[in-house]
């Protein structure tokens, strides 16, 4: 049985007569509350008014308005361009990888409401919260934020950066070297030349050991002596003598170990001895000598390795070949530092590019958050749904958070690097003044094209071009030469010697006449020729030092070869890691591009749904935050991928060649 409610006729009639008496008091109360709220709203300061009051300093002479506090180009509520499709770098527009139009268009009613709020006259403090214009350049406050004379940008290309770095970098400005605390650890362009011109152990010093040596001497005497025995005085009791001697010589050591010497002697003697044939006479001598090692110290290879007068255990630094290898090692050390310097240079360049893009993304997010704030604020002032106080405070807080992030992205902080910090770092590395009226801005964009590298070819290129391997091969070659020289000292010393001499005697030095009238004629007659020939030998029976030198040289050689093999394995792993990181970076870049596209779609749809009142404001704020984070991550991935290609070139040892840099010795 169905139950039905039945109204009493009396009760129904009572409600008909009593309905208007119940509705009118409620309607009046509602109107009274509405008027009260409107009156309170007119006396309640706006958030911008509160900000303007808090921004004023205590000193009235140092007051600043809100326009100076938001000098970075805060958009007005009437801004027409709100999209994230492109980043404006002052006078240059850089397209994003994805562009899906204007996701922040909103409805026409919302735009008309924003324009109405932004253009209506208002004499209270709320007018200070609206920025004057949206056409402000990227850095309108460059003068007031650390770079006093910066008024324009310098779009720096990679080629210009490399040229400036080479022109201004006598000192390699590595960021890891403290030039003030440790100047001795700094690498300069003069280091290879300093090593090559070492007067003690450089190549020229080693060559000088085999240069010809000339010598000459001239002496004269006047003697006046008395002898107790006339026999001792040459049959005179008192000897009076004038004596002069001129001697010259030439010595030469060859790379075969041969030692040559040539001596010339001219002697004049005038005395009063009783047995003299002439009161005065001249004597001339011409002498040639040679010494040739036959065992120890013999051979061209040993002398080029060890040099003259070599001994075991001295590393043979005066050898020509050893000195040249030392010079090549110094050149390799310089190339390693120069290569790492260019890696740091590219890192600074792409990091600055990333900061510019990140700053532009933050500014776009800030502009959007400002529009959202103004929309909610307008609804609040008009009493519309969606203008609740907590929503207005939430959007206002988000705007000022983005404003803070924009300031930090521009100027940096103690924990984060800003554009100006990175710009000064790049200036320091390429040797530019700290301030020249311009702000450096990378002109070359990130690399986005895929690259494929064959592992075997890359490893072969690394083995051929990697400077560390070339340096270690020089070390192996040097120790191999030292072992060859050390084995030579196991041989006994056996030298062949020879000497010949021609003499001349005469009353005068030159002239004509009978025999002995001229010393020169008597010399060239070869009547007085002498010679000497023989061998000399010496040996240490136990040869302790020589055996220790050979063993030490072998151990050193095995050590350097082991290091070379380990370096080759390290280069192989490094090339594999560099290529793998490049592939991973490219995959991450593609994912970030897709994430940004999805974030743009989400933000556009969230904006449309929020304008239609179908979703809450928190979803729109979350969508804008997600897009900002995805774009910032995209910039990081773009930087990582561009740097990964540079690191592959470094791992293969072709970085200097790829950028067109060839080191030379001054």
Explained architecture:
The protein is of the alpha+beta class and about 675 residues long. It is built from 17 helices and 10 strands. It has helices at about 10-45, 45-55, 65-70, 110-120, 160-170, 190-195, 205-210, 300-305, 320-380, 390-410, 420-430, 455-465, 465-490, 520-525, 545-610, 615-650, 655-660, and strands at about 85-90, 90-95, 150-155, 215-225, 240-255, 260-270, 280-295, 440, 495-505, 530-540. It has a 6-stranded antiparallel beta sheet. It has a two-stranded antiparallel sheet with strand order 1-2. Strand 6 (about 260-270) and strand 7 (about 280-295) form a beta hairpin. The longest helix has about 70 residues, at about 545-610. The protein is elongated. Mean pLDDT is about 80; it is low at about 1-20 and about 35-150.
What structural class do helix, strand and pairing data support?
A: alpha+beta
Given the C-alpha coordinates, what overall shape results? elongated
Mean pLDDT: 79
For the largest sheet, list the strands in their spatial order: 4-5-6-7-9-10
- Tally the helices: what do you get? 17
The counted number of beta strands is: 10
State the distance separating the first and last CA atoms.
115 Å
Bin the strand percentage.
5-15%
Helix content: 40-55%
Please mark out the parts with pLDDT under 50 across 5 or more consecutive residues, or reply none. Answer: 1-20, 35-150
Question: How do the helices and strands follow one another from N- to C-terminus?
Answer: HHHEEHEHHHEEEEHHHHEHHEHEHHH
Major β-sheet annotation: 6 strands, antiparallel
Radius of gyration: 47 Å
């Amino acid at each position: 049985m169905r139950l039905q409610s039945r109204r009493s006729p009396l009760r129904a009639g009572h409600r008909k007569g009593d309905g208007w008496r119940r509705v009118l008091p409620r309607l009046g109360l509602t109107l009274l509350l509405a008027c009260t709220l409107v009156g309170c709203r007119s006396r309640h300061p706006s958030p911008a008014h509160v900000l303007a009051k808090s921004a004023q300093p205590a000193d009235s002479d140092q007051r600043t308005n809100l326009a100076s506090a938001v000098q970075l180009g805060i958009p007005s509520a009437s801004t027409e361009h709100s999209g994230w499709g492109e980043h404006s770098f002052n006078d240059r527009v850089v397209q994003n990888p994805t562009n899906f139009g204007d996701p922040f268009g909103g409805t026409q009613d919302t735009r008309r409401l924003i324009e109405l709020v932004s253009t209506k006259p208002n004499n209270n403090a709320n007018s200070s919260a609206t920025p004057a214009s949206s056409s402000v350049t990227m850095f309108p406050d460059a003068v007031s934020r650390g770079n006093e004379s910066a008024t324009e940008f310098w779009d720096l290309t990679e080629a210009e950066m490399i040229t400036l770095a080479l022109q201004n970098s006598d000192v390699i400005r590595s960021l890891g070297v403290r030039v003030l605390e440790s100047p001795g650890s700094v690498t300069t362009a003069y280091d290879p030349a300093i090593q090559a011109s070492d007067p003690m152990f450089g190549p020229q010093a080693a060559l000088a050991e085999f240069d010809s040596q000339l010598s000459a001497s001239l002496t004269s005497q006047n003697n006046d002596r008395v002898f107790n025995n006339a026999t001792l005085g040459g049959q005179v009791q008192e000897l009076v003598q004038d004596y002069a001697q001129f001697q010259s010589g030439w010595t030469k050591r060859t790379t075969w170990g041969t030692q040559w010497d040539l001596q010339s002697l001219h002697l004049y003697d005038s005395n009063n001895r009783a047995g003299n044939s002439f009161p005065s006479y001249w004597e001339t001598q011409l002498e040639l000598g040679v010494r040739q090692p036959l065992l120890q110290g013999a051979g061209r290879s040993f002398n080029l390795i060890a040099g003259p007068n070599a001994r075991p255990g001295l590393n043979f630094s005066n050898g020509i070949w050893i000195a040249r290898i030392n010079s090549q090692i110094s050149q390799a050390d310089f190339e390693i530092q120069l290569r790492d310097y260019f890696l740091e240079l590219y890192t600074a360049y792409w990091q600055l590019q990333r900061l510019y893009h990140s700053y532009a993304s933050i500014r776009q997010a800030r502009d959007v958050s400002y529009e959202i704030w103004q929309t909610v604020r307008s609804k609040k002032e008009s009493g519309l749904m969606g203008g609740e106080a907590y929503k207005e405070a939430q959007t206002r807080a988000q705007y000022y958070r983005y404003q803070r992030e924009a300031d930090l992205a521009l100027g940096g902080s103690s924990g984060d690097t800003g554009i100006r910090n990175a710009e000064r770092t790049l200036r320091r590395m390429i040797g530019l003044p700290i301030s020249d009226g311009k702000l450096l801005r990378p002109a070359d964009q990130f690399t986005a094209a895929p690259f494929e590298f064959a592992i075997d070819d890359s490893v072969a290129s690394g083995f051929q071009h990697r400077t560390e391997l070339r340096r270690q091969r020089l070390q192996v070659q040097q120790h191999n030469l030292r072992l060859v020289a050390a084995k030579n000292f196991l041989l006994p010393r056996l030298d062949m010697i020879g000497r010949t001499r021609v003499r001349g005697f005469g009353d005068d030095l030159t002239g004509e006449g009978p025999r002995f009238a001229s010393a020169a004629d008597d010399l060239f007659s070869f009547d007085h020729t002498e010679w000497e020939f023989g061998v000399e030998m010496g040996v240490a029976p136990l040869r302790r030092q020589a055996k220790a030198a050979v063993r030490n040289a072998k151990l050193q050689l095995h050590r350097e070869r082991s290091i070379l093999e380990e370096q080759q394995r390290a280069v192989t792993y490094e090339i594999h890691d560099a290529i793998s990181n490049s592939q991973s970076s490219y995959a991450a870049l593609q994912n970030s591009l897709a994430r940004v596209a999805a974030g743009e779609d989400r933000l556009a749809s969230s904006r449309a749904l929020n304008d239609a009142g179908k979703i809450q404001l928190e979803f729109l704020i979350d969508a804008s935050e997600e897009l900002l984070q995805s774009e910032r991550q995209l910039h990081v991935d773009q930087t990582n991928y561009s740097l990964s290609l540079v690191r592959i070139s470094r791992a293969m040892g072709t970085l200097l060649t790829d950028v067109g840099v060839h080191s030379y010795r001054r």
